[in-house]
Amino acid sequence: MTHRPLPDTIRSRDHDRVAVLELDHPDRSMNVVDERVLSDLGRHFTAVLDDDSIDALVLTSAKKGSFGAGADVSWLPELAARPDAAEFLAGVHDLMLRVVRSPKPVVAALNGAAFGGALELVLAAHAIVAVPEAVVGLPEVTLELLPGGGGTQLLGRWVATEDWVELLVSGGRLNADQARDRGLVTEVVAADGLLEAALRHAARLVADPRSRTGRSHDAEAGAALVARVREERANSRAGLTPAVERILDCLAVGITEGIEAGLAAERDSFLALLRSPRARAAIHLFQAEADIKRRSRGADGRAERLGVVGGGQMGSGIAATAVSRGLSALVRDVSAESLDRSRAYLDRVLARSAPEDGADPRAERWRGTTGWDGFAETDAVVEAVFELPELKNEILTTVSGLVGEQTLLATNTSAISIRSLAASVRAPERFLGMHFFSPVERMPLVELIPHEGTSAETLARAAALGRRLGKVPVVVGDAPGFFTSRVYARWLIEGVRLLLEGVRPGVVDSAAKAVGFPVGPLQAHDEAGVELVVQASITQVAENVMTDRIDVAAVRKALETLLEAGVRGRRQGLGFYRYADGRRVGPNDEVLDVLGVAPVDADAAAAGERLLLAFASECFLCWDDGTLCHPDDGDVASVLGIGFPRALGGPFHWADEVGAARVVERLAAAGGAEFPAGAALEALAAEGGRFADAARRPAPFTEPEGESA
């Protein structure tokens, strides 16, 4: 059997003794760097060196507006499993050094963004020209990795030592002007002059080979800088993660011992990180999030004019996010004072990215009203008033009678039944829940909650609106608390249950942070307000779905007792912690006295285990009862929305990593009936299966084609 050769990923043409190589990965909208690209580049580069009629090489992209998106993330697990992975990377590094040391100059021409592995190819060149729209960066650290194609060493050829360290450790990006100012780009030119500029630089380098010298670095000063950054990161909130530590190791070697030693360190470090659980978790989340975004494309009826009912924190955040993302926002509230606060909220959000001259035309896209004028012209309306069903019903009845026949209608709620609210809407097929998270402009998740009458088209349009607002839209079922509020309620309750057993507040929260949660459950009570937790997490969620396995009444009684004693949260100055001028100054251990509970010397590791398992157990039950379309959705929502440890990749990925049978054992040890494993996890434990292999379910309540949302 014969196999047809794969098409080239690079096209070559000659231009006045200069070879122009165009990256054009077939069947990809953007170039990615994989084994094929590297093999083709090596072959073409060898041909250029062997051709006496060619004096120089220009590397560019045939993809419109983009040079390359980096390495193919889906290929990385395959690379990790290869026994010859180290030899493969050594070959990649050899190719990069061949380009760096080439007797024929190489010029990179960036017609758009260049990230990760694509930028590493560029960094081996001798001049870099870019269009004004170009953006560059090495974001591998965000995947718990480091650049593996030579980037840890090649970046130092272009930028100062401080920038070399900062760009790798942060994974940040630079626009074309910033890259030029730091020395990473040689020249910024208009798109129609990009090739001409690249050819001009190629001719200059041919005429003057001495101008190809890269930037030098002082070894002693560089090593001292790396050591200082290492110490600062170790003492910072972000911490010294394994990826950052390995990056700093590679930099120290490269600065003090030279590029070849640095590349050897990079190979070892890259493979060690790639084969680590943290990297597998990060890659899983990246791919799951990318899949959700892919399924959110393609809806008709692009929203440009958004109506928001309610000028409180959530409504103001939704409107400000819309304006910052290019939409117009019409905000309705009953009082001019609320609208003034909403407009001030917008100004604060826009100020973070305002032009230096202070004039920001984006603000003109925001308008406030105490009436209903303008709502008939909106493309979508999000109701975001207080969490009172009767108020929401009244507003939805009014607004659904005002808007056009194609207007998307949504309610922002964390727990109220979408089905019950749909009865107030004149066109229920165009209505669904959109649960945003606070602060809206920063939180990346939005839950989409259809009801029985929501059309597949509406769900797709809502997903597209979510993406337009910069959110990751996860579809969940219309059950009490949906997904995130339900799981979060269970986690908050476990914090109170530990407290009722005598575990001090500081120990509870330290235990949570020790297993990877960004905050502890009692601090979370304080931030939200204890009264709101009772209303939302206990009344609306836990009392509807958890009373058969947890003593919810005891938790309610404890919280109400604390409220009566003035333990209300950060805004009121006293909660599970004490506050001075709004700042936390220490735990409030007197809450145990208020509750009549004697403090105990708790096992912090056991407390952290219970908090982790309480969260995960509720997620498993949500999969059992159909609240989720796929475990991957639960992982993304858990990490992006409610703080599950990112390093664990989400509760379902974590269960797959640990093994279903082992997780079942740990749940049983934690408390049995209060920590149910759920039917799916039990079955996986018996069969040796994984959540990752589950089939995707259609979106709840919609016909199967609604899955595209």
TrEMBL record:
Supply the enzyme class, top level.
Answer: lyase
Query: Which pathway does the UniProt entry assign to this protein?
Result: Lipid metabolism; fatty acid beta-oxidation
- For this protein, the Enzyme Commission number is 4.2.1.17
Pfam families recorded for this chain? 3HCDH, 3HCDH_N, ECH_1
Recorded hits in PROSITE patterns, A to Z, give: ENOYL_COA_HYDRATASE (PS00166)
Protein transport listed as a keyword: no
Q: Which InterPro entries match?
A: 3-OHacyl-CoA_DH_NAD-bd, 3HC_DH_C, 6-PGluconate_DH-like_C_sf, ClpP/crotonase-like_dom_sf, Enoyl-CoA_hyd/isom_CS, Enoyl-CoA_hydra/iso, FA_oxidation_alpha_subunit, NAD(P)-bd_dom_sf
| Keywords recorded for this protein, A-Z | Fatty acid metabolism, Lipid degradation, Lipid metabolism, Lyase, Multifunctional enzyme, NAD, Oxidoreductase
Catalyses:
a (3S)-3-hydroxyacyl-CoA + NAD(+) = a 3-oxoacyl-CoA + NADH + H(+)
Q: Which Gene3D superfamilies match?
A: 1.10.1040.50, 2-enoyl-CoA Hydratase, Chain A, domain 1, NAD(P)-binding Rossmann-like Domain
Q: Which part of the chain is the 3-hydroxyacyl-CoA dehydrogenase C-terminal domain? A: 481-579
Looking at the record, the residues that make up the 3-hydroxyacyl-CoA dehydrogenase NAD binding domain are: 306-478
Similarity comment: family membership? Belongs to the enoyl-CoA hydratase/isomerase family.
Protein's recorded name: enoyl-CoA hydratase
